[in-house]
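Appendix B. Chain record.
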Amino acid sequence: MLDSIRRVETPEGVELTLPVAGPAARAKAWIVDGLIKGFVAFAVAIAFSIFGELGQGLFLIAWFLIFWLYPVIFEATLGATPGKIAVSLRVVHDNGTPVGWPAALIRSLVGFVDSLPLGYGFGLIATLVHPDFKRLGDMAAGTVVIHTGKKQSRSFDGDVEPIEKPSPPRIPLLLEEQRALVDFAQRAKLLTRERQEELADIAASITAGDDDRPREILAQAAWIAGRR
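Structure tokens predicted for this chain:
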């Protein structure tokens, strides 16, 4: 199966595909959110500076609330922090439903562990090894971060990139393998040529081994989708 896609079957029996966000996209959102929180904390520090030592204590309390409640409030109400919104990301439950206060609170609490030892080290390691790019907070809360700019639709619906000469698969394919080819065709325009070739190499056993393996997979996907 292709990476960065999470399949969810709804109670109605409809299978959805959720385009999960990887470490790079999440890092961009984290940087934007960090800048926003830093600016707010700086403004609060200036405001409390007039109170002397009392102001320092008030600032420490405000700093904790800013950095802990910031993601909770935005994710529970909007489904995403300003940083995630800026890069078209959203936090949802594993089944694709919107998150609420409990999940947002858990993500934020465990986020402290993710941030250790420095620069979200544990969180980065977790996203790199988890198939759905989950950090520890996501695992605890049962959530996943997805791209919102990509269509969430029924899989295997035949909506693939047009091709002049569809061709049948060279060998019999399982249903999951057919779905993988159709997923590739649906996402082909969003991928660089290098990424297309990298993914196509995974399916080397079902191609003729020519120089344009991605094109051959697109032709087979079009055949599977019924364009014959």
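Further analysis of this model is presented in Appendix C.
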